[in-house]
Amino acid sequence: MSIVTLVSGGLDSTLVAYLAKEEGIQQYPIFIDYGQRSRDREHAACRSAMAKLQLPDLEVADLSGYGRLIKSGLTDPNQRVLEDAFTPGRNLLFLLVAAAYAFQRDADAISIGLLHEETSLFPDQTSAFLQEAEAMIARSMGREIKVLAPLSSFHKQEVIELATLKGIEGTYSCHLGGETPCGACIACNEFKAEGV
C-alpha cells in the first residue's frame, strides 16, 4: 500500500506520517501552501519532521492564491484568528490536491490528520465529509483512492501522549505563525484545553 500524506508540520499530521512509517507504508508527503499566515514556520517544521522520518522529498503545492481569495483568520491578518478561523473549502482543497497527486503517483490512499468527530468545529472535519469526499474523489479520478483519517478515534490529549511516547518533537501548530505560539488560535487552544 502507498499513501499521500497531508502534512503541515503540526503534531497531528506529523504523528500520522510517523505511524505510517512505523507500519512500513510507502508514503509521499505533501505540504499545502494555501496562503496561511503560519506558512513559513509550518513549512520549516514540516521539512524537519519529514527529514527525521527519512521520507521522500516533501512536495509543496503552492496554492497561496487561495488564501488571498478566500479570506479568514488563518489567511488574512486583518481578520480575527480565532473567531474568523473557518476557511471555506480548505479541507476539500487539501483532499483534492492530495488525491490528484496520489493518482499521479499511483498511490492507493490519502491521509489527513483529523481527530475525533467530537472535536470538530467545522463541517469539513466530520466522518460524513470524509466519506462524501472519498466518493467524489473516486468519481472525479475514475478510480478509488481511499481517504484515511488514522487519528479519527483520538482526542488531542491522546495524540499528545502518543506523540510524546514516539519521541516526536519540534512540531509547529500556531495559526499566527509567530516564534512564540499566540495562545489564542484554535490550534493553541487545543493544547490549553488538554492542560498541556
TrEMBL record:
Enzyme Commission number(s): 6.3.4.20
GO molecular function per UniProt: ligase activity
Classification via InterPro entries: QueC, Rossmann-like_a/b/a_fold
Transmembrane helix listed as a keyword: no
Known pathway: Purine metabolism; 7-cyano-7-deazaguanine biosynthesis
Protein family per UniProt: Belongs to the QueC family.
Protein name: 7-cyano-7-deazaguanine synthase
Source organism of the structure: Bosea minatitlanensis
